[in-house]
Amino acid sequence: TQSTWGPDRIFDSMVLLSHEVVRRMAIGAVFKDNQKPINSMSFAFDGTMLVTASDDHSIHLYNARTAVEDKVVLCQDQGTSLIRFTHAQNTVITATNAPSSEHTIRYLSLYDNRYLRFFTGHTGRITSLAMSPIDDTFLSASLDHTVRFWDLRSSQCSSVLPCPKNYVISAFDPLGLIFAVVSSPQIIKLYDVRKAEAGPFDTFTLPEVKPAAEITGCKFSADGRHMVLTSRTGSIFLVDAFHGNLVHTWKVSWSGVTPLEASISPDAAYVSAGSHQGDITVWDKVSGETVATWSGHTQPTACVQWNPKLCSVAAACSQLSMWCLPPE
Predict the structure, then answer these.
(1) Chain segment 179-212, per-residue pLDDT in tens
(2) Alpha helix (H) residue ranges in 25-101
(3) Residue 13, pLDDT above cutoff 70
(4) Measured between alpha carbons, how far is 94 from 81 in angstroms, rounded to an integer?
(5) DSSP symbol at 266
(6) How far apart are CA 182 and CA 169, in angstroms?
(7) pLDDT digit string, tens, across residues 52-96
(8) Beta-carbon count within 10 A of 203 CB
(9) Which of 55, 135, 177, 265 is most solvent-facing, going by the fewest CB within 10 Å?
(10) What's 20's DSSP letter?
(11) What is the DSSP letter of 259?
(12) CA-based nearest residue to 303, from 275, 277, 270, 282
């Protein structure tokens, strides 16, 4: 670990974000623990821990407050991707990413490196995992053109939603009452968690989005008012989650294998994403203008996430960096 401001630096403040604050943020710590790119990461719901998964088949756990690595877990058998924290800080769900994998979702205890449960049923590569923000249920989407609803307490899938034959992703809203399914660049379907099998209660059409723009990521803002969609071509779309209209479109250079990720700040005011060159761009969610461009990575940076509780951002290529406000 290389810490810019010394080993005692603690990422523990949540300040009121502003353009000035965003422009002042800088790298506070860098971790060079991986031999290959980091393909996914997840903050704990309380923001105190960060977990990463890499193409080198390793999982790394970090204390997000002290910027210290806590544990390493090797997954040499099937690899690891799409890692997500559950509501316990020492357990995660993760998908396999080895070419010969059986498309299994694994429930893993990081405390003792033990699999607690396996979730099987998908017959194609898993494209998204989303943990409910309120309970132990989660969503998975796959190239087998289904979205599946699970509960950590059972290895049996509780419901299956068939989707059109496209790249499928899904995401929960911040209240855990609604989830979105994107199975076409131009169509978003919203489901009531309690009545998912009855079909979507609303469908949004985005005619401005080109059919060739394959959507590979979807997230809701913390206030539930917007969704941010990322595409394989580097186009990023901000969508009104209530009315379905396209609010902003941004473009970054992207040609990486790992799907590009965008992240909305905890106050729902800013949107951030990496790029093929490694730069991270921060946009004002209301005006759409570029607020800051953070430089520091020299490789394609797919993963960017705002800490949900602290004033910090994690970004990753094969290295992991933690961005925060420098000391006065």
Answers:
(1) 999 988 789 999 999 999 899 999 999 988 887 7
(2) none
(3) no
(4) 6
(5) T
(6) 5
(7) 999 999 999 999 999 999 999 988 777 899 999 999 989 999 998
(8) 12
(9) 135
(10) H
(11) P
(12) 275
